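Ticket 4471: requesting a sanity check on a complex prediction with zinc ion. Repro inputs:
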Amino acid sequence: MNIPVTVIGGYLGAGKTTLLNRLLADPQGVKLAVVVNDFGSVNIDADLIANREGETISLTNGCVCCSIGDNLALALHDLAERPDGPQHIVIEASGVADPVRIADYAASHPRLFLDGIVVVADAETVRERVQDKYVGDLVRDQLAAADVIVLSKTDLVDADACRQVRAWLAAEVPGARVVAAPGAGEVADLVLSGAAGCEAMSRPRADDEHARQFATWSFVRRQTLDGGALRAAIAALPPAVVRAKGVVRLSEAPERRFVLQLVGRRWSLEPEAGEVRDDWASDPSVIVCIGLADQLEPEGLEALFAATPTGHVPQAARALLRREGRS
Ligand SMILES: [Zn+2]
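Returned structure tokens:
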């Protein structure tokens, strides 16, 4: 099983460490390794991290997206090669780093895969920062790289200002998934579901006295699904869906299982690694979506996925499948 890697980016002071600490406060049993890049004179971020279960690696002598990229590559290599390594790796980028370059390091090791890029944006200051003549381009690039944008410090602005900044982000970053200041369990839902199974993802969210931001929706079918229809449905998912995971069987290779991973704008649908098992043939296809509770529309999602079972595959496609010896 390959190890998912999440990159947390965002400008200086945006609230990356707060997000990380919320994740570490409730890692939901996932064994985490955290790589922190902070190269200021005081290494505050690493001091704040109170991680008991996992491990924290601090890279401090430069920026991991450029000057000390080799150190990051080595640290990731070391984590990936360990026999009892982590189940998930989270990299906290420095405030001036380009998250895409860090993500490239994560994607270059065969045992690691880039799960997603989460960029933290300060609700109070992000628009000013983008206008800034010195750092504006950097902040804009960070936002553009985001699969999910976490809006921080929403308690410092009123509801109206919060709506405005969300609308602005939606225009600035097409298709952006914007999540407002997630609490501890929510950060885990957002970041760690890549390492969790569908079952863990589909458990009820409302286990907290605060109004929970997320809701889940599940899709289960006994039949195999049509890969083309499924890929089209995933690509058409609304921005209300921030996370999805699935283990499905496709008519194009019914003996296999395929794993769907979706983090905001990023998704993949790949054959499950390892040997094909005989008992997979009777497995149902399961997809679980986590989305913003106030925007998630179960009927819309149901309609979107309704065409995915093979019953809807046109005759011509069936003939093609038979020719290729798959049915
Ligand atoms: Zn850099």
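Notes from triage: Confidence is low (pLDDT under 50) at residues 41-45, 313-327. Leaving this open until the requester confirms.
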